[in-house]
Amino acid sequence: MSGQAVALLSALHAAGVHVALGAAGNTLELTGKRPPAALLDEVRASKAALLEVLAPKTGDMLPWEDVPDVAPSLPAVLAPDPLPDHLARLVSAAKAGTLPGGPVKLASGIAPELGVYVLAWAECWPRDRAHVLRRLEEAHAVTVGV
Fold first, then answer.
1. Most Cβ neighbours (<10 Å): which of 5, 27, 67, 81?
2. pLDDT digits (tens, 9 = 90+) for 122-141
3. Are residues 32 and 78 in the same domain?
4. Cβ-count burial 29-44 (b if 16+ within 10 Å, e if not)
């Protein structure tokens, strides 16, 4: 069912409609252009699948209270590790706005806008290298051959 939900999200995006989870996580918010009647009927019929696809996946992030306080352990003169070249190119493409638009299915879920997703994770570099690398590698995997 999630494949149909992703296809519906893509059709909505192509029609100028943006879909997001409501604040409580159990409603959909449609913004942008008014969807054609057929798409709106499909949204109503597929609400549960859309909510499932758009919902954050458990285990993806730590609850705020579980995030450890990290004191800087390196001297300020040391520069942080750079991103690997292929991921640095991905971030550059996101900054330039040349990544595919619309929702994209990643291994860990759906990214409503790939460029925004990449830039958000790139800003976290190098605070959580392993997690950021996993997320950016997922985004890179869907852009290979595009």
1. 5
2. 888 777 778 888 888 888 88
3. no
4. eeeeeebeeebeebbe
User: Is the same domain home to 50 and 79?
Assistant: no
Place of tokens 């985004």: 139
Side chain identity at residue 114, one-letter code:
L
Cα–Cα distance for residue pair 144/128, rounded to 1 Å:
24
Based on the structure, what is the number of domains in the chain?
2
Q: Are 133 and 87 in contact (CB under 8 A)?
A: yes
Structural domain includes residue 94 = yes
Domain that holds residue 23: 2-54
Q: Is residue 84 part of a domain?
A: yes
**Residue 99 has what DSSP assignment?**
S
User: pTM of the predicted model, to two decimals?
Assistant: 0.46
